[in-house]
Design brief:
By secondary structure, this protein is mainly beta. The protein contains two helices and 13 strands, in the order ββββαβββββββββα.
Length: 180
Amino acid sequence: MRYESLAIEGPRLVFPKTYRDHRGYFFEAFKQGWFRENIADVSFVQDNQSLSHQVGTIRGLHYQAPPFGQGKLIRCLRGSIFDVAVDIRPDSSTFGKWVSANLTAAGGEQLWIPEGFAHGFCTLEPDTEVFYKVTNVYSQTHDKGVAFDDPVISINWPIPLNSAVLSDKDRLQPPLSSLR
């Protein structure tokens, strides 16, 4: 496995070493010791999975407020996504800035998003499945979000925003300014 740091301190892109032959491929998707040594000294307590049928489905931007903040390790199992992490740490010099990565089932890339970031993604293929490990359990009371189309954040989503497929919850998320 190897990783690349991104433009904001914290999130990292993780790449598996893939072994391919005539049968297909094999890779180790996660190794606790390697992850703790190279990415973050955390423990994962829950695995989540989503299926999005339509291209252009946007899920996010989501986060959990303390004391239920979550770090997330995201991987695409089928299809591909444009994955985004937005820095929402109030005292950070990169507050409101974002980084992104395309994650594909074929490539096996993973994005580590530490606590203190909002997360969202846009599906690039039909019937896309996303799997992610989290460092804290879900708490409905602490479940929060930020508007995916907030002009202050100005995410360059890969689809026209008026064609985004959204949940009612994601359509009504507050602006980033509500966090300050």
